[in-house]
Amino acid sequence: MDEDVAMMDVDGQETPTSTSNSQWVAPPASPQDLSSVWTAENSTQQRIIQFITRWPPSRTPFAYGPWIYASRGGMSEGIAGQDIPGLKAAFQALLGAGRVTVDTVDQISKTNNVVTGKWMIFEESPKIDMLWGKILHFVTVERKKGVVKVSTCKEGEKHVICIYVNDYTNKPEVDALRKGLRSLGVKWRIGFKTDAYTHLNIYKDNPWNLRPSRFQE
């Protein structure tokens, strides 16, 4: 999932050269501090407030790490058994045969069990902290499963929040998550990208004319 940083078009951009700016929160003791595991026992309003207060995306610089993570579980099914090398080898075969299409990429994704994916929400820094708090509460308390992450602050760029599903071919799951995001106020059009597309470097203006977002709603 860390490869998602590439889809933000941040390659080649400078990271903050200093973390002494008064707007930044104190640095983590280790990069792992930006990750959190949530359970039925610790998914409380108090802990959510503590976590977003400690790591508000708008005041956590990219230099600390590209992402702030939260895992509520339930993703092992989608991750277990993924064959990334097999996916890439199958994609090379498609390239050789000139058969790169949405359907053929879907087929090799399913064959190699690389079917996780995420809805992606882009937002400006002044609005990101409140939206992140709502989505963190939704995943940990209401949905009670899943992985969600938000990008840290990089000057001149929007933040992105990624909310994952186990299997993008399970359209009811994909649609249910989108419905939940609408209930939080995310009513504008957003894109859903498969992890397979990320692993295969299928981004904007790719040579196969594939839309980077598998779904847009």
Automatic annotation (TrEMBL):
Q: Where is the composition biased (Polar residues)?
A: 14-24
Please list which residues make up the signal peptide: none
* Domain of life per record: Eukaryota
Q: Which InterPro entries match?
A: Bles03, TIF_eIF4e-like
Q: Name one Pfam family in it.
A: Bles03
Q: Cross-referenced PANTHER family, in alphabetical order?
A: UPF0696 PROTEIN C11ORF68
Q: What is stated as this protein's family in its record?
A: Belongs to the UPF0696 family.
Please identify the protein, giving its name as recorded: Uncharacterized protein
Origin species, per record, is Agrocybe chaxingu
